[in-house]
Design brief:
4-stranded antiparallel beta sheet, Double-stranded beta-helix, 16 strands, about 290 residues, 7-stranded mixed beta sheet, 2 domains, 5 helices, alpha+beta
Length: about 290
């Protein structure tokens, strides 16, 4: 079967804080090594890649995804979206129909699997059906967010370690917390320390490794001081100059670097269909 050569497609950077569009590539077909290498370099440079006009089966989506890494497999005792003990999520339906996941509501800026020991390196999300209005996804450039901090703040946070608590293991009857002030709350799953300032394992760029709303705690800081610092950093993150908002079309695949971005989803009409498939790739221990 013929493979795509590097002259058959284009990578066009967006006029945005991150992102590039890939055209002229059929992700259902084998891809040449030099093309894969160009795509990997482009992801390091632009953080998200948008592949247009694709038609893939689940198996074809998997095979394309595996050019970039192996499947993310969570530990049995650390739940993630769609996981169950002894069950490894593979192609996950991100859909408001047919027993899919994530519903129709707004999802705050977050990265996937940050509460695990080895968070995923990235995900590919393939759109099959999209609503007429709403359901757009935004990605936020965490390297740019870090680089635009003042020098005092950079020095203050340089060596801090962050715990991100598992959002799938919290009291659903209590209001969601953004910072764990009460250290007497019993832990119901393992917790893992990751750097608040992460170094990207391939580019070497510094990343402000913080979600916008997930419950966190800075190790070793007084709870009031830690909560105040996290709130300041989150106010800094919440700026349009850091993100790109994507209006989905059926046939789009977006591949994002989960190590250097956050993503957010707009709410949409529950009476409309939004059908997507996601594959998440394995990552490494943050440093």
């Amino acid at each position: 079967m013929p493979t795509l050569t590097s002259i058959d497609f284009q990578i066009t950077p967006l006029d945005a804080p991150l992102g590039a569009v890939v055209t002229g590539l059929d992700a259902s077909q084998p891809v040449a090594p030099n093309v894969i290498l160009r795509l990997k370099q482009a992801l390091r440079n632009y953080h998200i890649l948008i592949f247009k006009n694709q038609t893939l089966s689940d198996e074809q989506l998997l095979q394309f995804s595996f050019y970039f890494g192996s499947l993310f497999v969570p530990p049995d005792d650390i739940p993630v979206l769609a996981s169950a003990p002894g069950v490894v999520p593979v192609v996950i339906p991100i859909s408001n129909v047919n027993n899919g996941y994530t519903g129709t509501g707004e999802l705050d800026f977050h990265s996937d699997h940050k509460w695990t020991p080895y968070p995923s390196s990235g995900s590919l999300l393939y759109a099959q059906e999209v609503p007429r209005h709403g359901g757009d996804t935004a990605w936020l450039n965490l390297n740019l967010a870090y680089e635009t901090l003042d020098e005092f703040t950079k020095q203050r946070i340089a060596d801090l370690q962050l715990i991100t608590y598992n959002p799938f293991l919290r009291d659903r009857n209590a209001p969601p917390a953004k910072y764990r002030r009460d250290r007497t709350i019993p832990l119901i799953s393992p917790v893992f320390l990751h750097p608040l300032v992460r170094t990207h394992p391939e580019s070497g760029k510094k990343i402000l490794y913080l979600d916008y709303a997930t419950e966190v705690e800075i190790a070793g800081l007084d709870p009031a001081e830690g909560a105040e610092l996290i709130e300041q950093l989150r106010q800094h993150l919440n700026r349009p100059q850091f993100y790109y908002k994507h209006k989905w079309s059926a046939g789009d695949i977006v591949y994002w670097d989960n190590q250097s971005t956050l993503h957010y989803r707009e709410a949409f009409d529950p009476n409309e269909r939004r059908v997507m498939k996601r594959v998440s790739l394995a990552g490494s221990r943050p440093f």
